[in-house]
TrEMBL record:
Entry protein name: 3-keto-5-aminohexanoate cleavage protein
Gene3D superfamilies according to UniProt: Aldolase class I
A family per Pfam: BKACE
InterPro entries in UniProt: Aldolase_TIM (IPR013785), BKACE (IPR008567)
Coiled-coil features, chain-numbered ranges: none
Cofactor requirement: Zn(2+)
Key words, A-Z: Metal-binding, Transferase, Zinc
Amino acid sequence: MSKVIISCAVTGAIHTPSMSEYLPLTPDEIAEQAIEAAEAGAAILHLHARDPVDGRPSADPAVFRQFVPRIAAATNAVINITTGGSIKMTLEERLAYPLAAGPEMCSLNMGSMNFSIHPAARKIKDWRHDWEKPYVEGMEDLIFRNTFRDIKHILKVLGEERGTRFEFECYDLGHLYNLAHFVDEGLLKPPFFIQSIYGILGGMGPDPENLAIMRTTADRLFGRDNYMFSILGAGRHQMSLLTMGAIMGGNVRVGLEDSLYLGKGRMATSNAEQVRKIRRILEELSLEVATPDEARSMLGLKGPQSVKF
């Protein structure tokens, strides 16, 4: 088995400030938590931006520039910029900073989908900001859009023109077939980094059997030597699914974007806490953790020297 790549998704665009006092919101908080996560063992840092005033998701390149260069200067981690942004952003907004920076890696959701955490609104009585409650409840009637044409455009302007490679976010079995379509069209070449995602309402459930189905389907569509498999378990399913996936030869993703908890009833106080926990689990299983440069080699990345942070 090859070494295991740990990715860390530092803040995301789904959780809101009222859900956890530890969620990084300002550029300083995002930078500090990302750097700490890299020091703990994360080879890849998956980054979103937040409005520094009230913590709402932001696509403003000026906000990204307040923390991404600082992270790049302080760590050797692979910096992975979202192209998903939030469900309320246009494609142009989502791509504004990635197109300017041309990062080594970007995330790429492999289809349009219902994507929601609206039931979480029932659990919160006190909201810190006026935007939060309608944002969370409103997900019930919103669709995250990534059409075939959208995906093709992203592959062209980021992949072909800027040499960026992708974390292909696959929330359902059909997303693997969408990825295979673009391979058949000659728009993608291996190695593919497939992030299989479980436990998001609107996507595939967190059943362990689904992990096995995704793994065997990816083997059939791409051949195991042509892709790197990774696992994202949302919420309370994070560590159990990641452990199972690692045993099956997969890589792992943690971070406060994916889960606000470290264990049952215990909130994570930082992203690094989750990185340290999964690293400890991996090492107890006699699995080695990949360094950033080893991850670059495994994923065929262009290297940080070609990035405009």
